[in-house]
Amino acid sequence: MCKILIIEDNKDVNFMLYETLSEAGYKLCSAYTGIEGVHKIKNEEWDLILLDIMLPFKSGDAVLKEVREFSDVPVIIISAKDMVRTKIDLLKLGADDYITKPFDLEEVAARVETLLRRVRRQKEKEQIYTFKELALNGNAKRFYVMEEEVELTAKEYLIMELFLKNQDKIFTKAKLYETIWEEEYLGDDNTVKTHISNLRNKLKNANSREEYIETVWGLGYRLNKRL
């Protein structure tokens, strides 16, 4: 389920957007100031941001500028400002779309769906897989943590690729071994355990604040989705 953050200080507008997009099947969260919005963007993973311009404490354009320093998350601007120059400036600053108030809620939902679909198709074409601060480029065979490349062995890369392509799936040691090594699993856990341990160490060195691979006792391993 796609996660969308609404940064809008008008509670009525925020609620209408929240209700409409919830009914469309998205997971929503609201922020009411620019500072609160930036905090949420930095500390959680989002698929799309709906961003008002006239926000207290930190304006929407300042939020957009700061976010573009560390994230490529899709952003749709929602603003009462209808000047062409304003739209152009915000699009150049990194916005992906611009909707003028007052707006039709069905149009907002349609634009959200269109942008998410475009981003999804582009990622599939580029073979880019992301999770929290992790990113894997399937074409270039490169792996990144917090936008810094991390050198992996061939097997480590294949394990991370498998995890990132199947983010909700638990992999048993047997399944990992048979998928990555393409051999029958005969019960020796050491090979898989060693590679998982080495991966965890490299991920921890790249970002000590996060534990990306979770052990599900009695079952196997998966990506750790806990915040």
Automatic annotation (TrEMBL):
PROSITE patterns: OMPR_PHOB, RESPONSE_REGULATORY. It comes from Anaerocolumna xylanovorans DSM 12503. It holds the Pfam family Trans_reg_C. The modification 4-aspartylphosphate is found at D52. This is Stage 0 sporulation protein A homolog. GO terms for biological process: regulation of DNA-templated transcription. Keywords: DNA-binding, Phosphoprotein, Transcription, Transcription regulation, Two-component regulatory system. May play the central regulatory role in sporulation. It may be an element of the effector pathway responsible for the activation of sporulation genes in response to nutritional stress. Spo0A may act in concert with spo0H (a sigma factor) to control the expression of some genes that are critical to the sporulation process. GO terms for molecular function: phosphorelay response regulator activity; transcription cis-regulatory region binding. The keyword Isomerase does not apply. Residues 3-116 form the Response regulatory domain. GO terms for cellular component: cytosol; protein-DNA complex. Residues 126-225 bind DNA. InterPro entries: CheY-like_superfamily, OmpR/PhoB-type_DNA-bd, Sig_transdc_resp-reg_receiver, WalR-like, WH-like_DNA-bd_sf. Residues 126-225 form the OmpR/PhoB-type domain.
